[in-house]
């Protein structure tokens, strides 16, 4: 790797930030992260079992808190953000329409992992083309990387009481990615303080009361965990609280005052596919497995799998207004249902015993 003086490194950093905008990133900052300070709280969170069945979170301590172990020679991390909410997509209104499906707005279009990783790699290669081999590795929520903590230290924003990164420029409707680089670039100042103040809207409005206290989330109660990561029978006491949310949950973002500063995406790949921003629950429930696999190709929704997709929608149909079509669809689904799905179908049917 070629050597550079201080002025040259500053020029490189300035160029990187310009190129990042060209590749669709809304924010780009550079940090030399110090992550050991988060180890104790992270382990305490794990010991409480707040990670649910996400056992992978208990692995790779040597990588999570030491960035150089993820990529040999790491001297800096380039932290980047990209907005994902299309301007045309409704949020609160859709939550208040119980016969419609609500899918977390990051998951309506193409899988963000693929889109952002491609852009990160393009940025890293652009640096390489201009300044020579710098040694790099790109990450998008796919390795033991403390993304939000890195972004906070880079001055991108602060970690809010809802555990999401909040930006005074962009709220929280954005995704993060990182380029670990061996270039000793000048670093940006960290966020001086967290600006949640006395606000507790995200804690108070969580449908399942998943927040133990500010900055501590019991993921095992979180709708995003239950509908995406969890492979079992959803606890009965949480089902009615899930409403029409069938993949993920945005409530703690929707009520956050900083959301008013959110920027809309300009990326075509984040536009909704298959009317997923406004489709009826019953229509989605009637998808057979081939249709599910076809319609979720290249989508983050594929992660939940077909059986859990139907499980989630069954719960939502139990929370939806009574209709004979809904009851008939739930009843038909019992014929070939697995034991896990059957539990949720019978619960949903029980909610419709008396027409409303």
Automatic annotation (TrEMBL):
InterPro entries: 4Fe4S_Fe-S-bd, 4Fe4S_Fe_S_CS, QueG, QueG_DUF1730. [4Fe-4S] cluster 2 binds at residues 206, 222, 249, 252. Its EC number is 1.17.99.6. The keyword Kinase does not apply. Belongs to the QueG family. [4Fe-4S] cluster 1 binds at residues 196, 199, 202, 256. This is Epoxyqueuosine reductase. Catalyzes the conversion of epoxyqueuosine (oQ) to queuosine (Q), which is a hypermodified base found in the wobble positions of tRNA(Asp), tRNA(Asn), tRNA(His) and tRNA(Tyr).
């Amino acid at each position: 790797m070629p050597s550079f003086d201080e002025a040259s490194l500053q020029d490189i950093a300035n160029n990187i930030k310009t190129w990042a905008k060209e590749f669709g990133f809304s924010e780009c900052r550079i940090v030399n992260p110090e992550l050991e300070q988060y180890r104790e709280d992270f382990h305490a969170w794990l010991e409480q079992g707040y990670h649910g069945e996400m056992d992978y979170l208990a692995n790779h301590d040597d990588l999570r808190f030491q960035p150089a172990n993820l990529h040999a020679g790491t001297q800096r991390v380039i932290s980047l953000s990209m907005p994902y909410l299309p301007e045309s997509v409704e949020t609160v209104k859709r939550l208040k329409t119980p016969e419609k499906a609500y899918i977390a707005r990051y998951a309506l279009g193409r899988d963000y992992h693929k889109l952002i990783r491609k852009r990160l790699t393009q940025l890293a290669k652009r640096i390489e083309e201009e300044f020579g081999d710098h040694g790099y590795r790109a990450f998008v929520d796919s390795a033991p990387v403390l993304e939000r903590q890195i972004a906070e230290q880079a001055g991108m924003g602060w970690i809010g009481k809802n555990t999401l990164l909040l930006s005074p420029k962009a709220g929280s409707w954005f995704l993060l990615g990182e380029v670990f680089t061996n270039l000793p670039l000048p670093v940006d100042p960290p966020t001086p303080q967290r600006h949640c103040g006395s606000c507790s809207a995200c804690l108070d409005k969580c449908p399942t009361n998943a927040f133990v206290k500010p900055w501590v989330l019991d993921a095992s109660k979180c709708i995003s965990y239950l509908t995406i990561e969890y492979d079992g029978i959803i606890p009965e006491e949480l089902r009615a609280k899930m409403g029409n949310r069938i993949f993920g949950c945005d409530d703690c973002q929707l009520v956050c005052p900083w959301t008013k500063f959110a920027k809309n995406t300009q990326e075509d790949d984040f536009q909704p596919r298959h009317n997923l921003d406004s489709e009826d629950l019953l229509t989605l429930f009637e998808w057979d497995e081939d249709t599910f696999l076809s319609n979720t190709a290249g989508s983050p929704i594929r992660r939940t799998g077909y059986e859990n997709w139907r499980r989630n929608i069954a719960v939502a149909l139990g929370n939806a207004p009574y209709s004979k079509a809904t009851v008939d669809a739930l009843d038909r689904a019992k014929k070939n249902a697995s034991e896990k799905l059957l539990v949720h179908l019978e619960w949903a049917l029980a909610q419709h015993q008396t027409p409303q």
